[in-house]
Amino acid sequence: MSEGIGARVLRKEDKRFITGKGRYTDDIIEANQAYAAFVRSPHAHARIVSLDTSAALAMEGVETVLTGPELVADGIGNIICGWGITSKDGTPMNMGAWSALATEKVRYVGDAVAIVVADSKSQAKLAAEAVVVTYEELPVVVGSVEALAPGAPQLHDNAPGNLIFDWEIGDLAPTDAALASAAHVTEMEITNNRLAPNPMEPRSAIATFNEAEDHYTLYTTSQNPHVARLVLSAFYNVAPEHKLRVIAPDVGGGFGSKIYIYPEEIACLWASMKSGCSVKWTSDRTEAFLTDAHGRDHVSTAKIGFDSDGKIVGLKVNTKANLGAYMSLFSSAVPTYLYATLLSGQYDIANIYCDVQAVYTNTVPVDAYRGAGRPEACYVVERIMETAAREMGMDPAELRSKNFVRSFPHQTPVIMAYDSGDFDANLKQAQEAADVAGFAARKAEAASRGKLRGMGYSNYIEACGIAPSAAVGSLGAGVGLWESAEVRVNPVGTIEILTGSHSHGQGHETTFAQIVSERFDLPTENIQIVHGDTDKVQFGMGTYGSRSGAVGMSAIVKAMDKVEAKVKKIAAHVLEAGEDDIVIEGGAVKVAGTDKQMLWHEVGLAAYTAHNIPEGMEPGLKESAFYDPTNFTFPAGCYICEVEVDPETGVTEVVQFVASDDFGTIINPMIVEGQVHGGIAQGIGQAMLENVVYDAAGQQLSASYMDYAMPRADDLPNYSVHHASTTCPGNPLGMKGCGEAGAIGSPPAVINAITDAIGNNNLSMPATPSAVWAALQDVSQKLAAE
Ligand code: MCN
Fold it and tell me: Can you give the pTM of this predicted structure?
């Protein structure tokens, strides 16, 4: 079938998206619709002295105003972090309490203290301003290094020194010994800047309590509605699981920021029960900057040692991870198991040791953002490899290649067992596409125009298809991360696929249909993907960690295996042939080598009319499956960036960006290329433009698009995207995830290119014109002094 695996099928969902017919949470209006606004702390750290809601409650159109103490009195539970981390001394992590509405203290600007429900959005906002809160301001700390310093302001009583955990991985003594004996050691301080996620659709929720049926419905901008339902019922005590329906309709991007259950969802559900209204809240853009979980924010020191032949002998890293004011759902996993387990990069390194201090600060909670831990790991490894090559006077590609892992499976010293890959193939393909041989001439030509031209590599690897329940369970995850699917063949032969994965921009309605089209040789228009509704789909773990292809689709394959077996039994019975002789092709189920056949829909009809199926067979044609892989998938690749810097101004242009990726089997090359383009745009954004900036008082100075520089089309080059794939042995389709690769691999390539151009390694992200100009001045001063 031309629409099967490998076909560039246009996205089925785009018709409604690009004609403005998408149905997002804020588009939905319930009967008895009321609107919520939150009263938020203007201080980064303060004690709540008093809170007076009487003036707000007296205002016209106000249904209710509810506060933290009332929420606690109603037994609503604290927000939890679902991944336990044990410190190196064996103690569990120090988790401070996070109430959906603050009770005694506020710990970041934007912390919610009350919810106001009124008949219109503007009335709710006006009434929120009428809530009088008296605060006693407390000292503030925003940086992780400062928060760990003696005498720093304390956020949570049960986290002395603001330390959430002090975790380690790898072996310290052999790593120290290897570094001590190394012929060359490179040492660097590496900062990974804090980012705001910025999905196009801001977060939104509508909660409806139906008193007559004692039932709750929550529409929400979630990447994992079933997990939301589970957590809301099991931990927050908002509604019993069987009486709560969670629907994530069209969701306009998430990039990780919509995995978690936020205070607003809890408060809206509770406020609906209290007020009898359907309660809707939609974040505005400033609220999004102030309250959506941020990403990254690592400060690291790294040391890498080489023998005299350029082979790596050891890598040692210390990282301070800023987790903000509270721990959100996956926050503890991001700087630990999603980060340090990838520090081996594409290289065969015998000794690795990393320790991570996770820290509370008076900032927005930090959790997964596209790549989640893996961009941070890739940045450390690829920045230090490039710097080491320069220090040793070696070609950076040659140094990398000398250390590549070449035999699989490969066990790293930091847990991961890489299953497949061909790093030489990606390097070679990228070098050819980037015309590395012609770089010297291009550099000379740029110099003739007064420009500095530089080239930078990044050879990334990531672990995605986040799943293996046994693995993640033993590493502290509260739940297994399998996926489920149901394949329903209707009596007329059309097919519905119910999946626990959730699409919020990744094109699942198309790619998931393609694998069904491939298997049953049917057009994708006859195949419907159903997702995002806990009343329709049995259960699911949702979408993050580029897992929907490798895990979600694998569950569909398992369910299709069962459907195919039944289809063959029915056809063999009707056509009086052996099951082994039955083939499915061209919209029919045939006896191979004969003209005997049933049309596909005739098999569907036979299954449901039931008088024509084998004796003892259950009627119907629908099967479900759960899939739990035994390993992650390991996408990898080589990115090469070329930049031109104007030395007068520091203004830098990315003039070429080449990607060679290994995503295993590719279902839809067009969608995969789109994913890579989007990821690289975010990576270039991080490297050159984006930065969340706090002042010393904990106020965000970058909470609008006037100050937070999102990448725009004219900041980005035309990408040159290629694939050199190896098959993933760990899932039936041989796929590796592609959704995060671009954001993981690109930042070090950009910074390596700029530092190459300016001749100064000491440059942090974002490489704004002023930062690049300042780094150039350092070089000139050094030269003048010599
Ligand atoms: N695919 C394919 N062949 C492969 C791998 C994937 O055709 N070898 C297809 C898949 O079928 C799917 C898409 O590519 O249609 C992405 O698949 P996958 O890599 O499995 O990632 P997920 O679908 O699980 O998406 C999650 C991933 C993550 S973790 C973030 S963050 C992210 C991303 O995807 N957020 C996104 N891409 C995004 N794209 C958009 N538009 N919006 C987001 O919020």
Answer: 0.97
pLDDT at 733 over 80: yes
How many whole angstroms from 549 Cα to the centroid of ligand 1? 7
Say whether 718 sits in a helix, a strand or coil. coil
Distances (CA, A) of 504 to 85, 264, 453: 30, 20, 38
Residue 167, beta-bridge partner list: 356
The CATH 3.90.1170.50 portion of the chain extends over 14-138+203-282
Portions of the chain given CATH number 3.30.365.10: 295-466+631-785, 482-627
ipTM: 0.99
Ligand 1: which atom is nearest the Cα of residue 368? Answer: 31
Q: Which residues line ligand 1 (CB under 6 A)?
A: 199, 253-256, 370, 504-508, 511, 543-549, 663-668, 671-672, 675, 678, 735-740
Distance, CA 247 to ligand 1 centroid (Å)? 20
Atom of ligand 1 nearest to the CA of 372: 31
Q: Residue 1: its pLDDT value, please? A: 58
Atom 4 (ligand 1) nearest CA: 666
- Residue 448 sits at φ, ψ, to 5 deg, of -65, -20
Instruction: Report d(CA 126, CA 123) in Å as an integer.
Output: 5
What CATH code is assigned to 295-466+631-785? Answer: 3.30.365.10
User: How far is the centre of ligand 1, averaged over its atoms, from the C-alpha of 411 (Å)?
Assistant: 27
Which one of 546, 728, 744 would you pick to mutate in the ligand 1 pocket, going by the greatest count of ligand atoms within 8 A of its CB? Answer: 546
Superfamily covering domain 14-138+203-282: Aldehyde oxidase/xanthine dehydrogenase, a/b hammerhead (3.90.1170.50)
Q: For residues 541 and 627, is the Cβ–Cβ distance under 8 A? A: no
Paired sense of beta strands 204-210 and 244-247, if any: unpaired
Q: Going by CA atoms, what residue is nearest to atom 23 of ligand 1?
A: 548
Q: How far is the CA of 672 from the centre of ligand 1 (A)?
A: 8
Q: What is the DSSP string of 152-165?
A: PPPS-TTSGGGEEE
- What is the chain's length? 786
Rounded to whole angstroms, the Cα distance separating 203 from 263 reads 12
Query: What is the rounded distance in angstroms from the CA atom of residue 230 to the CA atom of residue 245?
Result: 10
d(CA 297, CA 357) in angstroms, rounded, equals 12
Mean predicted confidence (pLDDT) in 248-257: 97
What is the fold, at CATH topology level, of the domain defined by 482-627?
A: Aldehyde Oxidoreductase; domain 4 (3.30.365)
